[in-house]
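Office hours follow-up: a student asked to see two folded examples consecutively, so here they are.
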Amino acid sequence: MGLAAVTGIYTMKDLPVEQTGYCMTWGQQHYRTFDGKIFRFQGDCSYVLAEDTDHFFTVHLHNEKNCKGKGCKRSLSVYVGDLLIQLKSDPKDGSPGAFVDDKRLPLPSAMSGVLIQRVADFVVVRDPESELYVKWDGLESIFIRVGENQEKRTQGLCGTYDENHQNDFTKKDGKVVSHVVEFAESWAVGDCGNTKINSYCSKATEHDRCTLAKALQGCKYIMETKCKMVVNPAPYFEACKEDVCFSDDDDLVCNSMSAYFRECARFGVIVDWRRKDRCAINCPDNLCYDVCGSSCPKTCYDTSYNCENNHCIEGCHCPEGTYLHNGTCVARQDCPCQYAKQEYSPGSKLRLDCNRCVCARGRWVCTKNVCDSVCKAVGSHFTTFDGKHFDFEGRCSYVLARTEGMQDIAFEVKLINTCTGFECDRSLEVTVNGETVHVSHAGKVEIKGKEAILPYHNYFYAMEKVTTNFYKVTINSGLTVLFDGKDRIYIRAKPTLCSRMRGMCGNFNAQTTDDFWTPNGDLAANANDFGDEW
């Protein structure tokens, strides 16, 4: 691998196809492209790590300036459509998190279809639309996966994903080069300092030789495991040596070892490589270290996320039988509930419409009463009993709701338009067992063709004016109609009328798919055809 010390490139051969489509970078200087090319450069500015050629998604990498080899950090800016998610350390306490508009997001979160969650020690961003998957360990390691739909459509330091590492050093201007520095600097964002590829491992002095010996001793485990038959360990071994020589600290073996054994785990080779004296992890609170924990942790809210191809993730996980919530593990009975983006403790109660709910084991347990439903006709905007919204401009008379089949009380609610030129006045007509109530646009009320004195009631219905604006018809079978005398009609139906009505208000059967049912017994194709039929 002597050539790598000069060129900064560790790999010279194509990878198997199944090992492509996955880019990663670790330490402050090591990179692996989507097609498996592993290279090194030291750059202390921001770079386009990966983006699609349509610029729907872009991932910017921000290296720490003046990094001396140990304790350095990185951050990311992930652009998906119009959304910008920053993965960085919280300036308040130094903990890694996801931020939008400089506000820290609670995890898990979903914004504009993009899913953000914490899995073990990683913050994960996933966009189902573009199949972009970004994983950051909160320090220096970053992993990016794209779907096959992005083949030949990626660019940046992660290279062109086309299963050919020969063109991975494609510059921003489209030119393919062979030198790492020329390639890397073309993807710099903004002003950039010096970019170097020099090797830090040397035999020039006695101190250099001691450091190199320490690097060889500390890194040799990479070459000795069962995984070497599946994933070539040599590039990671060289990267490991460079980290130790750069920092003169044998603790830096952990970056390259972690990158290598994570790659092994992706291909089903699990190596329990950490020891008390080698890269040990101390888990906080009640989390436990697992070399192969689930990439889909169980959370109190059970938000559905895509597993990492069913692969495991190394790190701190919740013990079996507990659930992740706000960075700690809790028993199921201690899980809170969510409603309207607010959190409620176990045992909390809510009233939702006509039902009562109680928070139990992270779920709302509610009564299952069928509630009243309201149909609305406001100007040209309609909402059916089942919640289907549509617009309809009509100049005739239309049946909003009427009884279907044999019923003790038969009714029909009509919207009547009286038009002159382009202007239409709206009135309401309600017929109950053959008796008709008419409320004109001017507020005149007629019952059985004669002007009525309100309130009025009989055995089947009641008519009254309930406010300065609204008239109300109450039908004893469970229907209430409100009309403001202008252009607003609200019809409330009790559950006893479920599936017993037809009209522009729909069927009231908890299904929107058949709300455009016509008097002829078929489904209208659109709102205009539906309205015309009634």
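And the second, which I mentioned at the end of office hours:
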Amino acid sequence: MGISNETSVQAISLFVGLLYICILLDHLLKNNRWISKTTLILLMGSVAGALILLLTQGRTALVFKFDEQLFFNYVLPPIIFNAGFEVRKKQFFRNFSTITLYGAIGTLISFGVISSGAYLLFKPLDVGSLDARDYFALGAIFAATDSVSTLQVLNQEDTPLVYSLVFGESVVNDAMSLVLFHVIQRFDYIPLGADNVVLLFTQECLYLSVFSILLGVFIALLCAYTTKKMSFGGNSPLHEISAMILMAYLSYMLAELFNLSGILSVFFCGMSMSHYTSYNVTEISRTTTKHMFATMSDIAEKFIFLYVGMDALDVQRWEVVLHRVGTSLAVSSSLLILVLLGRAMSIFPLSYLVNLTKRDPDEKIELKRQVIIWWAGLMRGSVTMALAYSQFTKIAHTHEHGGAIMITSTISVIYFSTVVFGTLTKPLLRLLVPSSTITTNIRVCSESSSPKSTTVPLLWNLRDSDAYMAHNIATKSTLSMLITKPTKTVHYYWRRFDRAYMRPFFRASEPTPDDFEDIYQAL
């Protein structure tokens, strides 16, 4: 951090105190329907930054400088791992084609729109010495939606289908954006209009995606196998918890060591651990790790947005930008318009293609829900900020106006999208999907026993995952529709393979709630 030990202790103490205040405010306003937790923390960070600015007599609004390596190595992994650990794997893979279409193809569309749009709009503005790689990087940076903000704004009980699709898409989107950014950094120079750029991008993306996923799954299976064979039992819950935490972090760091995508690796490691390793440990260890991962993720999320709120008042950077206020506003406005346009060009055409493949009207994504999905994915957050710092921080800290403008514009877009779009999501949701309609849809969907229904929330309830299974079985009044509407999807064949080979080898033999559900579905 470049400051004395005493100053460092003071800065850490101040930041920890601010985090504690954020937790208290979050608890007091948890039932507030108009302000999201992210918006609250951003505003809290800005207030704290303003106070620090006054105390330091205008010298700085920060307690320490942002370090992208700190973010990627320590702050981001708990957030992504917890997302994979808590994701409802059944609904994730049952909606896998739609989620992949939004998250992968949609991200590529947004990437292309933002990159090409930035190149065309920024050239007349003279924003600095940006080369082709910077424009491609801008596409990857602003194509990344913010799953944190989306989760805090949407309610899975009100709109389960929208919640499932937005959350699943945002996770794949973050991974795809990081893969794209990682690929761009591998090229020292990218000539615009080169014939082999698309081929190189495709090869690198496939390589990073496939091997990152395989590494994460391998680490999780290794952890599951060792915890099963070691038979920790009830004597060593400390060893069980330590093994899961260390192996989860190892999946991320090994991916970074091998120049792969750590976010993809740790996400699929979390999914695999929750499916195999969690059933090889005691109930105490299972509950402890679940809440520990959720707690670490929550603190990391608060840390990120608290810092963004404080960094919005960074005096040194604004001193550079103030000499070119018009250019800075034009860049911020252009980026915001490109985000809106890129999101629209990815969601609405892809939703049309998805609806063409759905025969059941209940599974079609109607226009109102498409608008909600489009709007909810407009927010930008932690991944966007970290990538922007990684790309532009070197020239920003040497006071070049190009880097400073890009950093301040990124913070402006994050701040505006989180506060404005995040705050208006709830009213928009109630306008497009009235409460009566939501209730009716939930009732109808719960009575439907079609195993391919996409209206079930994507995440397990943290408090009682077994209760969801019991409720799910109770609401299916008959087996008639399971007989009249059989489905054999990729998920169906995977479950057969999983039950026959994977679970006997990597999971303990005692029955689990998931096994009872398999028996019910088989009947």
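Two things to take away from it. The two ends are 61 Å apart (CA to CA). Confidence is low (pLDDT under 50) at residues 395-399, 436-486.
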